[in-house]
């Protein structure tokens, strides 16, 4: 009887317990990536668990009612969260935690082509994550970069919205854009291709200012932007992001990952549609280019023995773009009655990296091939162009000695270009596509001299099939007297082989003709960069401050001269020299109260000096640019606010005085400012909305002689800010891990 009684009590107790206990499920993430093996504890109990490799966890017997759980992980701030536990339903929470010092622990590859943390990198690198760009949602990479200090997206045409990216004041052709370390976006594709990179495919962006030709070759003269695509293994299972504005700009992003055998695949897509003709200034021209764009991205990560790397990715972009007179219709394309600039772009890319199966050696083969097909009309001028670029690179990462970490590389690049202009024709008018072979070899050695000094020595040799051999050396020195102070000195030599004039908007849009005065020689640049960064913490938060001084000297600088003749854009090597110099600062503060602030500014001077010692400021280059992002989060309410903006000093603009152009030669001081509110929910859903350009700044005089678009006086290049007034936006995003 006693045993029976004990058994009944045992069954009763354990039968009742589930009624007083519930289940908590969740995922621990940081910057949209799972945090592996984080510890989760129900406060004031012995109940807890550990997340798995994907950041997922289950607490099976949590007490009912409001419970506080605490999340801890090495390198991350401890976070507490209140959840309502119920026996009737299971909680499923998404928990975002912050790194102790995000800047110090960030992984970078751009400066050395090897994975290292940002505080160990001999070269100064700036890291940008999607969470930073979400403070001011934009549909593509080109617009997102306006938030980066010293980096300025520049629209070059008020009709078709061609654009390029300026780093430290140097124009677009000096900026190299990489995808996963490979030269995917270059030459012809820089004109419209930058707007075809959606944020949905981006894991992070690494920005390096100053020449990087020793590692990356031609075009990396002013700096480079390396777009690191999402890793299928670390990406959310499902991601969706949609937003629209009061201008009716609609942007859709979605991605999904799947396990296929031993591989993990990520599929993502972006659709952007703006089809609303707006003419605020009543000049009968669209203020903003109409765009209908589709971008598809697919990346595979294959499991291989000994965790060797094998990734393969493909991307396709289609865009239909139009700007011109308000009454233009598709039937007017290429005609002389109604002016319009209509551009159809089809582009595909294939890229991958494969670690070769060498015993005890890390040898990786990187490869890419892309094709850019452009069918466009600018008024009555037709421009049909096709470009193919194939690239291969072999890297051998070799530890030579205890203090010597070397990298050996061999590359080959083939560029094919054809269009319907005279530049790809023989004197007897036969088609002659342009073909360039560019093989190269490089070596770098990273030398550790004690715990405080690190040196990076590098040299590269390329052979251009048109211009012959080109030699570029490099030197970097990092000095860290302690973990909170870092000094970096960079010295480098860069080069740029001439890009075809068709890459420049002024060659086709407007009425100016192009004149190439002589056979253009490669540009050379000589750069010095001094950088100081200090990390610090205080009772209520942490932060860092960075100062940077840069100086670049150009010889054989290739210039597009708008001043010689109002009807011409004259290309020639400068009979003199060019200078880009300045100082920059960045600050970041994060407080336990939930307040965060990023503030930066760049003061610079960019000019050329011709043979007669005449100093000429570069057009569309302000002497000062500033940017900021100030955020405040209410953790309990899961609500955050973001205030972002840019400030620009006056910049010199192209004018045509010979035709009676009375517009000011310099733009005014101006700023673009935005505000956003975001509400986060425990299931991973976020709702956001706000105002862009809430001070309602609009540039004046965007098009000269808009009333005579087919005349020689027509000029749409007077551009310094987008023609978009204040506008509201709203959106929703969802991440499921």
From TrEMBL:
Topology term for the membrane: Multi-pass membrane protein
Alphabetically ordered keywords of this record: Cell outer membrane, Membrane, Receptor, Transmembrane, Transmembrane beta strand, Transport
Record-linked SUPFAM superfamilies: Carboxypeptidase regulatory domain-like (SSF49464), Porins (SSF56935)
Record-linked InterPro entries: Beta-barrel_TonB_sf, CarboxyPept-like_regulatory, Plug_dom, Plug_dom_sf, TonB-dep_rcpt-like
Keyword GTP-binding appears in the UniProt entry: no
Pfam family, one: Plug
Domain of life (superkingdom): Bacteria
Protein name in UniProt: TonB-dependent receptor plug domain-containing protein
Organism the protein comes from: Emticicia soli
